[in-house]
Amino acid sequence: MGSLIIISLIIAGLLLFIIEVFLIPGISIAGIASAISFIYAIYYAFAYAGTQVGFITISVIAVSIICVVIWFIKSKTVDRLALNKTLDYKPNPLKNINIKEGDSGITLTRLTLIGKANINGHIIEVQSSDGFIDEKTPIQVSRISDGTVYVQPLKE
Fold first, then answer.
1. Is the dihedral of CA 13, 18, 23, 24 positive or negative?
2. Whole-angstrom Cα distance, residue 58 to residue 6?
3. What mean pLDDT do residues 57-80 have?
4. How far apart are the first and last CA of the chain?
C-alpha cells in the first residue's frame, strides 16, 4: 500500500510539473502543488518505507524531472513561445515639422554636441556640427540626415 501512495504522488507531481512547464509557465498553483507532491512522496518514502526507498524515490523524481525538461526542450515548445518578430519601426522626430537647410533659430540649451533649439517655432533636439555652442546663440541648419538636424552658429 505504501508503494502505491509513493507512486501515485510521484505521478501526480509529474503531471502537475508537466502542466506547469507546458501549459502555465511561471510559478503557479500547479508548480507549487507539484513541489508539495514530490516533497510529500519523499517524506512518506523515508518515514514509512525506509531510507533505501527514500533515496530511490529521490532518484526517480530527479530523473523524471530531467526527462520532462529534456522533452520540453526537444519538443520545440520554447521556440513556439519565443518572440520571433523583429521591430522595423524607426521614429521620425521631424514628422509634421517643416524645417529645411538654411533655416535659422536659437539654441535653448547649451549644445554639447546635442541639445534643444527653437527653429521656426518648433522646439527640437539638434546636433552641433561645429563643436560646442552656448545657449541663446543664433544658429542655422547646416544639414538634415536620418531625422537628425545638424546646426552651426549663424555667421553674420
1. positive
2. 11
3. 86
4. 100
SS3 of residue 6 by DSSP = helix
Amino acid letter, 10: I
Whether residue 107 is predicted with pLDDT greater than 90 in this model: the reply is: yes
H or E segment to which residue 76 belongs: none
The per-residue pLDDT for range 83-99, each reduced to its tens digit, is: 777 777 667 777 778 88
Global pTM reads 0.51
Cβ atoms of 109 and 54 within 8 Å: the answer is: no
Q: Please say whether the beta carbons of 122 and 146 come within 8 A.
A: no
Q: Note whether 141 and 99 are within 8 A (CB).
A: yes
What whole-number distance in Å separates Cα of residue 42 and Cα of residue 9? Answer: 9
DSSP 112: B
